[in-house]
Amino acid sequence: MTAAAHTFQIVHDPQVPPTGLRGAVYALGNFDGVHRGHQAVIGEALALARQLGKPCAVLTFEPHPADFLAGKRVVERITPPQAQARALERLGIDGVVVLNFNAEIAKLDAETFIAEVLVKRLGASGIVAGYDYHFGKGRQGTPDALKEIGQRHGLSVHIVAKVAADANGSLDAVHSSAVRKALAEGDMTLAGHLLGHDFFVVGEVIHGQALGRTLGFPTANLELDPSMHVAHGIYAVRLSVDGRTYNGVASYGRRPTVDNGAPLLEVFVFDFSGDLYGKTVEVTFVAWLRPELKFDGLDPLMVQMRKDEAEARAILQAS
Fold this sequence. Notes:
The chain is of the alpha/beta class. Helix content is 31%, strand content 24%. Strand 2, helix 1 and strand 3 form a beta-alpha-beta unit. It is elongated and about 70 Å long.
């Protein structure tokens, strides 16, 4: 049985092994961003699953354990659940199991977590984790403990070494925190390098003030997850919907020239005339153009918007 034989599924808080994922090899982690380090862990899990003739899945938690333990949102999410699921599916795994992280899970020690969750509830045949993975009550479970306890319970256990952030063998590993910093600074080149793919968001197109349409730049508007910290500015983007992808230019920010309101992503889609309201779209950030600026009225804003459109078209055509 291979990964290709399965339909990708997302399973929330199963109490027994999910249909289609029985005996799966599980990659363990939070996988925020699904960056190159995460991809190495999942790649190893896929290889082990093929070797054992089993499905391959990711095990993660919602809410993020750090948010739960803090009692408030403290993690800036690179990939909220919907975007994370898309990124994981593209790696060829069979599914994602999302466990509800609560007080009961938080108090399990390392041994009990493996015995009760991985073996009993999920029926795992193998587990793969990164070199810095910690688990169990107080994060006391180390990668070495995972290997020792897991093997004692009959699991195949692989621990994956760190993935260097650059090609020169830097001591710095790829970490979600580095991706978050790059996004907060608008450095889409570095973010894409660390992620191994262009940064993207997923959301439903909502109604805005229709000012863009009045100015000749009708936009598809999305509210990003409030935990995401992406630099306010203008970007060359691609928007995907209904199996098609279009080039565009996007503004993310508070619109200081207009209303200085809540952050909003506004995408002007090139050469598109359809209705996107209510549709779920994917917006990929290809390049940073400039920071968000306040203009002295709408006329200079429109002049700059035309320049932004021309620059974005040139960048996207070249790429």
